[in-house]
Structures are given as structure tokens and as C-alpha cells.
Amino acid sequence: MSGSRREDPERRTLAETTxxxxxxxxxxxxxxxxxxxxLHSPEERGQFLSGLVDQLPVYVAYLASFVYIGVIxxxxxxxxxxxxxxDSGLLWRNLVLLxxxxxxxxxxxxxxxxxxxxxxxxxxxxxxxxxxxxASMCLSWLLVYRHLSAHEWLLxxxxxxxxxxxxxxxxxxxxxxxxxxxxxxxxxxxxxLFVAALLPVFYxxxxxxxxxxxxxxxxx
Length: 220
Hints:
The protein has helices spanning 2-7, 18-34, 48-54, 56-80, 88-102, 105-117, 120-150, 161-187, 189-205. It is mainly alpha-helical. The chain has one domain (2-205). α2 (18-34) packs antiparallel against α4, α7 (120-150) packs parallel to α9 (189-205) and α8 packs antiparallel against α9 (189-205). The chain starts with a helix and ends in a 15-residue tail after the last helix.
């Protein structure tokens, strides 16, 4: 398989992954840092304790999205342990992935405000918005997986294209989970919040790939 990669004419336009990984790490680091800007110190004298307690929904939203971006970073790292080179197609798809992830602080802020100050309708709108952004993240991963499964010469030795064919299912699970989050949120916003919190757990547990426990494992 390595020989066919070297002989492929598209190989001439490939580049090493180092710059892509460094840039991606920087974007994800900024995104995860921006989340903290929604945490504010109470301002009303004599009411600091109640002010801190009132921000509990904001803390929960912050923690959930911090974990989500952290899990994405881990998954992104695992992804690039299975890639030896990048082409322009993968570069653009990686940018889309970073775009959908870096915007997460915005729906996180909306979600925290809705559960702190809004009514039931506000909470439903915020959860639907959050789920749509999360679904766009799943779609961006699907684009990456589809590209890698069709461009085997980008892959590291020992990583078959079939690995990324299987990985598409992780994206489909995410899309289904976010659709379920929307439906549950329209019924009960708090329950919808619980559904949304389960998805990062799934991606964290499967960060090395479905049915895979070894780095660059090719045996299936």
C-alpha cells in the first residue's frame, strides 16, 4: 500500500501534517478559552453568594462545552496519528471542522442565559440552536472521514481506508443524537440538556475509533 501512495500523481501536491496540527491546536485552544468569558463576578454588594448560585446554569453550560471541545481535540489528535500527509481537500475540510467547533462558545452563552434568565420557550430555542451547531460539527467530521476513506495515499502505514469508512458511523450517531436532542428539548428542555451532554461522552469513549484500541491498528 505504501508503494501505491508514493506512485500516485497526487502525492506531489501533498504536505506534512505538522502545520495543520499546530494551527488546529491553536484554534481549539482559543475556542476553549473563550468559553470562560461568560463567567462573571457578582456585582451587587451583599448578594455575592446568591449571585454565584444564580449562575449555576452558566457553569453547567461552560463545563459541558469545555469537555466537548476537549474531546474534539483528543479526537483530532487521534485522527492525525493515522494520517501521514494532507492535500488541499483535507485542508479545506479541516478548516470547516475548526469553524464549526470554534463557534461553540456562542450557543454555549445562549444556552447558559436561557436557563438562567429565560422561560421555557427560550430554553427550547437555545437547545435547538446548540444542537444545530453540534450537528454541523458532526457533518464536518463526516466530510473529513469521507475524504480520507477515498484518498488512501494520505494515510499512515497500517491504517486501511476501511477504518475511516467505519468512522462515518460515529458522525451519523452524532447527527441522530442531535436530532433526538431537538425532539426531547421541545418536550422537556432539561431532558434535552441531558441528551446533549451524552454526546461528548460517546465521542470521548470512542476517540481511538469504533472497535479500535490501538494506535494505527490495521488489523480487522
